[in-house]
Predict the structure.
Amino acid sequence: MPLDPRVRRFLEVLGAGNAVRTLDPGVLERREHLAELMKLGGPAPPIGHIDPLSLPGPAGPLNARLYSPVEARAGSLPGILYLHGGGLVAGNLDTHACIAQSLAHFAACRVLALDYRLAPEHAFPASLDDAYAAVKVMRARSADYGIDPARLAICGDSAGGTLSAAVCQAALDHDLRHCMPGGGDPMDVRLSPLRAKDLAGTPPTLVHTAEFDPLRDEGRDYFERLAHTGTGLSYTCHPGMIHLFYGLGAVIPYARTALECIGHEIRAALA
């Protein structure tokens, strides 16, 4: 059976001399489907300006975008590192641009959206390494970005939410080595932050889930554990909603309401 032309072209791009790395066509389809789905995000709220950035990463430069709200002035604003969803396999700066822009608008913060490395080309924990590196860069270069280093937050949706929680846990242990020879272990707390033995000391956290999301209970359980340590700020389960509803504003009008709610909560937490 001949290769799909899209698959063939992708292999040609990946080729180096006579050596060609193969990629499961299913991965390409997953990325294409997510990109098409995220076109249903609807019109994004107004934004002041968007600046493309290149951040130093553990394996080379990382693309990023800095979103500044309309009311942004020359002075410092709170900053959010935003990590997109996509199962650590799909998603990029373009697919989740509407969400990043919405966060900047509703939270009145500068949002740094990161284009972290994806699997399977870059096996886990590459994505976590990139996210952790971005946190350090964001703090070190906060003045360059117009960000107040004392008012930083990290957030993400779906897999990006997992990365956000894992980065917060990693920041508590300066000796943590992001190295996993032989591939990822689904029991590893860096893939499943809920499995961490101790969540004490994690930053104040806001958790949002959807009623018909298969990950709803894990999100609720994670918040309950955070609440016991005193770091769980609030938990919201959006009734009648599904996974990724917040990115489908063109067909789910409530998505904008939810993003506005999340943005206002972040704004209050960083005030």
